[in-house]
Predict the structure.
Amino acid sequence: MKKGFNLAEVLITLGILGVVIAMTLPSLIGKYQEKQWKVAYKKAYSGISQALLRVQQNGEFEDISNTYDVETDSGTTLVVSDAIGENFKTISKYFNTVKTCFDNNADECWVCEEGQSGYIGGGAPDWLGCYKTSYSFVDASGMAWYLYRNVEYPILVDVNGDKRPNRLGQDRFVMKFASKEGGNYDEHIDRIAPFEDYTMKVRWCPSGNCLYKTWLLE
């Protein structure tokens, strides 16, 4: 006579399986999301690089090297250029854009209060918030684009739009106008460059261990 499992044994086995699944599932989901973000980041970087190329080929790119100094509330001096914002708006025309926020309404295209944007003003924790006066737009794929400030070179993308986690180095990434010579406000701007890789908590990586350039090379 063959003996099967009794009810108690089955329940114990199912309980053990449940514990194992509960322990491993979050890790599997996390790795799946990370892979999705990596793929989306590469797509975003390729998309804006192609858009910049088309803007330049059509002679629509304004000279960024025409700069001026601005004093901040903290007493530091910023080198800025009004052409940066205009170029960002021109670049948006080369995306399949579904919404633009160029009229002091960046928060309508970009999650500000719940997300990280490298924001300094007001001393917000973890660099939350954004400048609502900045330019932002959303493309047809659902990616949100945000210019840190209309006169400074950092460009941010949120590869899944208004969906969480809205964290720099996870679903949000920082790029910039640059030249092969490495200048930020160079008259020979010829590319969009990713920010360097981060392993420590800094302004553009509040959570630490963020990856930018490396993801493009994998």
